[in-house]
Design a protein that fits this description.
heterodimer, A: alpha/beta, Peroxisomal Thiolase, Chain A, domain 1, 2 domains, 4-stranded mixed sheet, globular, B: mainly beta, OB fold (Dihydrolipoamide Acetyltransferase, E2P), 5-stranded antiparallel sheet, 3-stranded antiparallel sheet, 2 helices, 10 strands
Chain lengths: 383, 146
């Protein structure tokens, strides 16, 4: 077994205080991160990996993205390590492993806690809670509506262009008896007739929250030979986290998936237009539109024309989300993103039954979190 | 939208010691944001270090209150039930003249908002407190000065 590699080049530490007063964990993370990175003699921009603990009191979810945005970082590997008192040591080998895997080069591993005499009753004191929620902007629908409106304004894309994505997902879902919208197709007209939730976003362009679960097992290339199922290899991976709040997004019409997909494709030596299956994260129609453009499948702003030029069904020239996508299948919370992995494996194994695609050698899988903030791309290949 | 915004039982900001100067200024109808004396960049939202260079010499400066609408949405189904009486209402992304972008409430104007609209700070009582809302400059110039 080869040993873990990597080197520790900077340290930071805050003087212990019995109590803090009005200080957030995020502020303390900023202070101690600065000490460690400057101790290493590095510029903040050198940090491309981020490992954080789960106990950032102000924010229960999207913790790495919240910290990355706060620190102005855009890491290509970001993760929470939740191992109690073993988290610090656990971060170090994970950092080295991520570097070895080619995901990043320099990792900030940071843990901090405040200690307030009267802890706030609401744990949610992050920048979104303070600077977005008071204006009536709660929830993801509004954030994606803002991204969609920006795309329309910049590129002249239309409501009908976006509706094509929802209609295609519903159509593919008709071949998946497990899909929440199985037996409930919706054409472009039906999508456009569904209520506006937050302009320009229609109800049918938004995933349906459902209960569910998804799992996969990953093993070594050596072990795989002794196992019974057709092998699906991880050929390339890329990740990028740029912000948490939509107001802090570096771009409203291109996301961190652009970089994540480029890295995954480069690692695997493949091109997006070679893929036999596009298994693209689709919480909202705008997410698919931006991903198609960020993948370079068409020029920026041209996703609508691209959709009209291609057949997205399992029989088509560009099968896209053959399980129905989350727009057709339903979104079992975080497991929703994993549906894109599971369907890709099913197709690459040739086990997709009635919706099996013809040639099934390569699949591009994307994952997206928060408001086009957290991005991971995988290239999977059949043996 | 004819609802009394100030009567909404909507959640207010979760102010901390670090962000207090921003909200103190807002309460007086002014907009103050941080500027980094090391790299010269304007910073929003407030932080203990500059997100560009991680310098600590951040000073509060009065912002012009001018901005441009980067995107907007008319909210028909609010994410928080306290906002239901106000729906439909408009939120937008405002690129401040100083550089940073903030999300804000866009007051109703003579016509529906358009991406690219020039905006002006319009402090507004919402949910029992003053918030830094914005309105289109076009609307502002059509109003009779008081």
């Amino acid at each position: 077994m080869s040993r873990a590699k990597g080197a520790i080049v900077g340290i930071g530490e805050l003087k212990p205080q019995r109590l803090t007063s009005g200080v957030t964990t995020l502020e303390m993370i900023a202070e101690v991160s600065r000490l460690a990175v400057f101790d290493a003699g590095l510029e903040p921009g050198a940090i491309d990996g981020l490992l954080v603990g789960p106990q950032v009191g102000e924010t229960p979810q999207h913790v790495p993205a919240t910290i990355a945005e706060y620190l102005g970082l855009a890491p290509t590997m970001a993760n929470v390590v939740d191992l109690g008192g073993a988290s610090g040591a656990g971060m170090v080998w994970r950092a080295a492993a991520a570097i070895e895997a080619g995901m990043c080069e320099t990792v900030l591993c940071v843990l901090a806690n405040n200690r307030e005499e009267a802890a706030p009753r609401s744990p949610n004191r992050n920048p979104i809670r303070e600077f977005d929620v008071p204006f009536g902007a709660s929830g993801a629908n509004i954030s994606y509506a803002l991204l969609m409106q920006a795309h329309m304004a910049e590129h002249g894309s239309t409501a009908k262009d976006f509706a094509l994505i929802a209609a295609a997902a519903r159509a593919n879902g008709q071949l998946n008896p497990d899909a929440i919208f199985y037996g409930k197709p919706a054409d472009v007209e039906a999508v456009l007739a569904s209520p506006i939730i937050a302009s320009p976003l229609h109800l049918y362009e938004i995933v349906m929250p459902v209960a569910g679960g998804e799992a996969v097992v990953v093993t070594s290339a050596e072990r795989v030979r002794s196992l019974r199922k057709p092998t699906v290899h991880l050929l390339g991976a890329g990740e990028k986290v740029t912000h948490r709040a939509v107001s802090q997004a570096p771009s409203l019409t291109s996301g961190p998936l652009k970089s994540a997909m480029a890295r995954a494709l480069a690692q695997s030596g493949t091109r997006a237009d070679e893929m036999d299956l596009l298994s693209l994260y689709d919480c909202y129609t705008i997410m698919v539109a931006t991903t198609i453009e960020d993948a370079g499948l068409c020029a920026p702003g041209q996703f609508g024309a691209w959709l009209r030029d291609h057949d997205l069904t399992h029989n088509g020239d560009k099968p896209l989300n053959t399980h129905g996508g989350q727009l057709g299948f339903g979104q079992p919370d975080l497991a929703g993103g994993m549906t894109h992995v599971v369907e890709a494996v099913r197709q690459l194994r040739g086990e997709a039954g009635e919706r099996q695609i013809g040639k099934a050698a390569l699949a591009l899988v994307t994952g997206n979190g928060a408001t086009m903030s957290e991005a991971t791309a995988l290239v999977l290949g059949a043996a | 939208m004819s609802v009394d915004l100030n009567a909404l039982k909507a959640p207010g900001p979760t102010i901390t010691a670090l962000t207090q100067p921003f909200w103190d200024a807002v309460a007086q109808g002014r907009l103050k944001i941080q500027h980094c004396e090391d790299c010269g960049t304007a910073v929003f939202y407030p932080r203990p270090i500059c997100p560009h260079c991680w310098g600590k010499r951040l000073v509060w400066k009065e912002a012009s209150g001018q901005g441009q609408l980067k995107s907007f949405s008319q909210i028909h189904k609010p994410g928080h039930p306290a906002w239901l009486p106000a729906a439909p209402y408009v939120v937008g992304l405002v690129e401040l003249a100083e550089g940073p972008t903030m999300l804000s409430f866009i007051l109703p104007g003579e016509r529906p908002p358009r991406v690219g609209d020039a905006l002006q700070l319009a402090p507004t009582a919402i949910g029992g407190r003053v918030l830094p809302a914005f309105k289109s400059v076009e609307t502002a110039t059509e109003e009779t000065p008081t």
